[in-house]
Amino acid sequence: MYLLLLLTLTLFPLVMWCQRTDGSCLISNMKVFKNNVVFTLPGLSRCTKHICRNGKIEVYEHACDFEGQCYLANSTFQLRCIVYKCMVQMMPLARRTQVALLENNCIDMFGQCHKPGARFPVHKDGITYGSCTCKTDLTGNRINVCKTICEIDGKVYAENQTFERDGKPCMKYVCDHGTARVIEAGCLFKNKCYPPGEVINNQCKQFKCVQKDNSGYLTFEIEYFQASCMDDKGVCRSPGEIFPYKQYKRCECGVKGMVISLSCLS
């Protein structure tokens, strides 16, 4: 079922013309069009083109004039996420050109189109809503119905409510206009949370909490940073440092990756 938006009639050209020996067309305003030349007639739609064929004026191409643009007959086109179709109906003395609405879709904050029932983020009145649904009202107009609650992992959180997600003990969120926004983030290491960028010392081995962007999705991971040697008193020694170790007077700390070695001389 189509919703008709624009209706125009393209009458057969009621102009005087005569057939000339060279096949050109002479119309009533004394303008001459050569044979097989395509043109528009004054007083008719600028989108309807005519052609002179062996001294006769014929319709060459039908199109719809919609919002200042011409669209060919039977073609579909999209404007602001709404899909239209240019339709032409033959009548006894005229051709009826009409623009029909095929799909009335919604547009999100990134300019992407969504069909009714789809969910997407919307920015309006200075606020970003993370969960909006495309719907149409009784008149066919498209509307965005946005939620101010968050539905995460099967649980519902109210606006401005803070919460944690299962399996992510170092992440804290707040429900912000339908979007779970991160307010605290970190890495879990031996049952303790560390913020991004913090270096963790563990038995002369150092690790770091690193934030990564995986295609727009932020993750926080523990990565090996650097290592050092531990002497017999529990003191960390840097790579290349020489120090006594147990019965040895001179030992040199060597580190390659995560492999730690001691080269000792008695």
Walk me through what this model shows.
It is a single chain. The chain has a four-stranded antiparallel sheet, with no helix packed on it. The model is unreliable at 9-16 (pLDDT under 50). With 266 residues, it is mainly β. The protein is 0% helix and 63% strand.
Blueprint of the fold:
Layout: E1 3-11, E2 17-19, E3 25-27, E4 32-33, E5 38-39, E6 49-53, E7 56-61, E8 63-66, E9 69-72, E10 76-79, E11 82-90, E12 94-104, E13 106-107, E14 113-114, E15 119-124, E16 127-136, E17 142-146, E18 150-152, E19 155-157, E20 162-165, E21 168-176, E22 179-184, E23 187-189, E24 192-194, E25 199-202, E26 205-214, E27 217-227, E28 229-230, E29 236-237, E30 242-245, E31 248-256, E32 259-265
Antiparallel strand pairs: 1-12, 2-3, 3-4, 5-6, 6-7, 8-9, 10-11, 11-12, 13-14, 15-16, 16-17, 18-19, 20-21, 21-22, 23-24, 25-26, 26-27, 28-29, 30-31, 31-32
Percent strand = over 45%
Query: Uncertain spans, ≥5 residues at pLDDT below 50?
Result: 9-16
Cα Rg: 37 Å
How many angstroms does the end-to-end distance come to? 95 Å
Helix percent reads: under 10%
Overall average residue pLDDT: 83
Biggest pleated sheet: 4 strands, antiparallel
Shape: elongated
Q: Determine the structural class based on helices, strands and strand pairing.
A: mainly beta
Give the strand tally: 32
Number of helices: 0
**Spatial strand sequence of the major β-sheet:** 1-12-11-10
